[in-house]
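subagent[fold] <- orchestrator: predict structure for attached chain, return tokens only, no commentary.
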Amino acid sequence: MAKQKYLVLDFGASHGRCIVAKYDGESFEMETVHEFDNIPVRFAGTLYWDVLRLANEAKTGIKAAYQRHRDLCSVGIDTWGCDFGYLDKCGRLLENPVNYRDEARYIYKKELDETFGEYEIFKLGGTNTNNIMGLYELYAQKQQDASALCAAERLLMMPDLLNYNLTGVAVNEYTNATMTLMVDQENKQWEKRFFERLGLPQHICREILQPGTLIGEIQPGVAREYEVPQLPVVAVATHDTASAMAGVPVSAEQTQDWAYISLGTWAIFGVEGNTIHRDRRTFELGFANQGGCEGKTNLVNLFTGLWVIQECHKRWSEEAGRKLKWDEVIDAAQKAGGGRAFIDLDAEEFAHPNPNMPLRIQEYQKKRGGYVPQGMGEVARCVYDSLVLAIKYCGLAIERITGKKLELLHVVGGGSKSSVLCQWIADAIGVHVKAGPAETTSVGNLLMQMKGLGHIGSLQEGRQIAARSADTKDYYPAKGGGWDDLFERYMKAVGKTI
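subagent[fold] -> orchestrator:
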């Protein structure tokens, strides 16, 4: 058969890619046609996403893809979760979306949790009550009497905005809508009690579209501007975590009880299932429900992934006068040895961009009376140990919630490229790790485009294609290593129990 080609726009919180996926009836291959850094902008004290630039990057990617491949089938867009923008009654963008790391969201979360009750919020919305969730930004704007909220006719999540720019159709895709914390996941509709009790305008949140649904076509004026045909635009699993889960390469032969972790700026550890867990134990263990594909629920723990080490890497590169290779960082961490210092990667001290993250880590340790790591190697090992042990915690917690023994962990995302990190994870958790592919989010985006166009019948069928196409590597736990002892010390250092 002639290759079917799909355009995947995968916009992450720090980096974006435009990819042409080519499927030959058996497997697929990916061709990157455009890449860019996603850099937020601080203006008058507020941290924003530059959505106008992102729309232009989408334009550049679509044009580049069509110039190389005149037979594209469709376009699908996924982005990070939680953030949104407003349209006015004329369909015009009111302002740039506020970035989830803006400090105001963190301040107003505390106020809302105290007045509403954090566990009550969890029970209604079913998902993480993390600082970054969209509900807290909406509440912050309500308390600030923000003019954009007052004038808003529609609320659109980041990928919804980009889809709207292409098609002129304003819809909310389900998986990203759940990242507002304001969706009733049983009925797959907006949870009205949030709007009623907080005095938020209900009319701005309307139709929710399930992933794998055709939104429409690129509208004529946009097609002329981009010099492309009116390609179909599919609502994929637009939350990148849901796309990553959809793209996990599960073969027909795989029978183990599996979980996955997407290791990028954020780490998302989860399992896919049919049950929505709203009990207090799930809440206290840090797990929550996020919207998945085909009516499934992703039971996940969302925590800080590579963000802290990425910020450290920026500082070390500045000090070196060149961009350090990641192998240099991990080699230094190996030589430094582990088990000296542990930090809570989710601590507020590390939540915001910082010009000297290594110093922030040292100050954090001094304040708590812990060992203060010195130099790049010790600081890097402190961060990596803390990340690996946070993953071990998730593995134990999810076994308690589901009652199933974890047998296989799929590691996907950028972190899957590090063989040292993947081996540490296998050793710490004590299970088989299958790493890769790094671009699982793009794979999930592709599969839901294929389903939306009727080119595959189910996600299961798509995952088998992904398994045939994937370049993966297996890691098996080595004996010894002392990870259980390190885990006890880590749990004490960060104040967790299980």
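orchestrator: received. Logging for downstream: The first strand starts at residue 4 and ends at 11. The chain has a mean pLDDT of 95.
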